[in-house]
Design brief:
By secondary structure, the chain is mostly helical. It is 72% helix and 0% strand. The longest helix has 41 residues, at 102-142. The termini are far apart. The model has no long low-confidence stretch (mean pLDDT 85). It comes from Colletotrichum liriopes.
Amino acid sequence: MASAYYAQGGIDGAESPDQFMRYLETCYGDPNAEARALDRLRTIRQKENESFAVFLPKFEKELAEGGGGHWVDVVKINYLKGALNSTLRDRLINIVHIPKDYLEYTQILMRIGSELDSRAHQERYERRRRRLSSPDQSKTKSL
């Protein structure tokens, strides 16, 4: 079907790429894509052990597909805040001046998220180091 439309040059033979894309969207596009994206946006949650740097692109994909790219910043911030895990949301309590600009808000979350990731990495390293040094100490004590 699409090949015939393309070969014909579109409805009026103008060979317009925009017309062809609209035709493809009409034939194959999901008429409920935006509604489904809004449902996913309403229910998306950052996992407790998920890095904010990993979560944000998922959130922004749903935001864009749900038409949220044109929303006012306060609405986008509200959706994002509701999707954050409890650890990151708790860290926001210490921020005196929470930005009302979405980009600034995400930058603060990226900074906090990065610090939390570094801390988690350091804790894993320390646990591993303690675990590896423990068997050596028990062998030394038994000798």
